[in-house]
Amino acid sequence: MKLYNSITKSVEPFTPLENNRVRMYSCGPTVYSYQHIGNLRTYTFSDLLKRSLQFAGFRVLHAMNVTDVGHLTDDADAGEDKIERAARAAGRDAWAMTEIFKAKFFEDCAGLNILPPDIVCRATDHIAEQIAMIQKMEDKGLTYCNADGIYFDTTKFNPITDLSNMRIQASEEYSRVGTGEKRSSYDFSLWKFSPTGAKRQMEWESPWGVGFPGWHLECSAMSMKYLGETFDIHTGGIDHIPVHHTNEIIQSESVTGKTFAKFWVHAGWLSFGDSEKMSKSAGGTLLLDNILAHGYDPMAFRYLMLTAHYRGPLKFTWEALDGAATALSRIRDFLAESDLSQGNIIESYISTFREHILNDLDTPKGIATLWTLLKDNKVKKDDAARTIIEMDKVLGLRLLLHVSGKTDLEVPAEVLALLTERTALKAAKDYAGADAVRDQITALGFEVMDTPKGPALKLL
Ligand code: AMP
Ligand code: ZN
After folding, report:
1. Partners of residue 271 on adjacent β-strands
2. CB neighbours of 13 closer than 8 A, spacing ≥ 6?
3. What is the C-alpha to C-alpha distance for residues 69 and 322, in angstroms, rounded to an integer?
4. Rounded to two decimals, what is the model's pTM?
5. Which-ligand-closest: CA of 286?
6. Which of the listed residues 33, 41, 42 should we mutate to test ligand 1's pocket, taking the one with most ligand atoms within 8 A of CB?
7. 190 burial class (0-12, 13-18, 19+ CB within 10 angstroms)?
8. Is the CB of 270 under 6 A from ligand 1?
9. pLDDT by residue, tens only, the chain of 460 residues
């Protein structure tokens, strides 16, 4: 498999650090508001990556954080905590508010058939781990204290990972914000003091004073806790490259003396309407619910995202969504006329598809292969359908639901084989492996339910 690595700015061969097991971390949502379709593009990308890794035969252990404290209105340490500000503006309890937006986020993910991460971790549940990390940096003489809080002194540490490509875009970001309380513009906040005389809704005692952790710290502390000091892949949106991810690398490597993550893979930006960017601060955002309210199937939006390469920009238009919906219904119609039980996977087509996907997740070419197959008169329809369902393990368009003649009782042999594999993994106490197989079953349109009589399957 080959993947683009933002560290080297090139497509590189990917092999896991540990046998065929991939440890992957995705920067998750900041739960002060709804996630818009731009955010959801980034999570659809990490889902595509996870499915592609599984398709390549790897087991994936996937962790994602939920930022429920500390993300400032500006990534480079300026402004106010987005969560505290949103809660105050709405007169809400910050803890309850973040729970609601978190739940809505996972609901949207389920709507888009984004597989749930194996581990979901909240920043507020890991304050002790974050304080412990700051203490390690302090012991190494890498921090300083000012009126605002504790900062990392970037002049005192050179990370192992070469940041030259990540930093290229950083200077503009920093000059816009200025240094504020910092000694140097690249320094970043590790712990912020609560404002004097005011009580925040979310604040904690620390060796340095009452306050809250800097935003970058949570991802370092939690990813290393759940995936180890060095893991395989770290993902996020491109906006995270110059500041958030750069700082994650610096602080993590300063503590461990080891490379933090091998591959940094980023999703391209989704824009909407005339605005170049789609961001909550710039206004003009669109939610998945808005798309659904217009009568679209969430899979049409997923299809639309997959027609663009994950790294490139994607301009959302209603016309493009219409096109995606039409294409998807043609695929569904084709499947509805096929009998999966009579079909076999066509090796030539699936290997071409695999080649595209394993070449930096080239879904546009993968989808083009699907269409060539669908239009190939020489291929038996049931074989084509069976092959398209195989492709859907990666695409995640829930196509299995549209195959004709399939009832709850007619579970495809492949799903049954996966269920047997999952049972064996559970018996061997390989729970992460069992969960990964469960995800593969989910991707095929079935839910596994553990009953007292053993596992049962239900159509999703
Ligand atoms: P946030 O909730 O602001 O922390 O963002 C969640 C994720 O969405 C991050 O990985 C961002 O990089 C990503 N993101 C934000 N806006 C967009 C956009 N317009 N297109 C693609 N990804 C985005
Ligand atoms: Zn992060």
Report:
1. 315
2. 1, 2
3. 38
4. 0.88
5. 1
6. 42
7. buried
8. yes
9. 999 999 999 999 999 999 999 999 999 999 988 999 999 999 999 999 999 999 999 999 999 999 988 787 777 777 778 888 888 888 888 888 899 999 999 999 999 999 999 999 999 999 999 999 999 999 999 999 998 899 999 999 999 999 999 886 556 665 655 667 788 889 999 999 998 887 888 899 999 999 999 989 999 999 999 999 999 999 999 999 999 999 999 999 999 999 999 999 999 999 987 655 555 555 568 999 999 999 999 999 999 999 999 999 999 999 999 999 999 999 999 998 888 878 899 999 999 999 999 999 999 999 999 999 999 999 999 999 999 999 999 999 999 877 765 544 567 777 888 888 898 888 888 888 898 889 888 887 788 888 777 787 777 6
Index of the ligand 1 atom closest to the CA of residue 42: 22
Residue 44 Cβ < 6 Å to ligand 1:
no
**Can you say whether the dihedral through the CA atoms of 383, 385, 388, 393 is positive or negative?**
negative
3-class DSSP assignment, residue 456: strand
* Whole-number Cα distances in Å, 4 to 62, 66, 161, 263: 19, 25, 16, 8
16 lines ligand 1 (CB under 6 A): no
41 lines ligand 1 (CB under 6 A): yes
Kindly give the distance from the C-alpha atom of residue 38 to the centroid of ligand 1, in angstroms, as a whole number: 6
Laid out side by side, the sheet with 188-193 consists of: 143-145, 149-152, 188-193, 211-213
User: Ligand 1, from 33, 37, 39, 269: best to mutate by most atoms within 8 Å of Cβ?
Assistant: 39
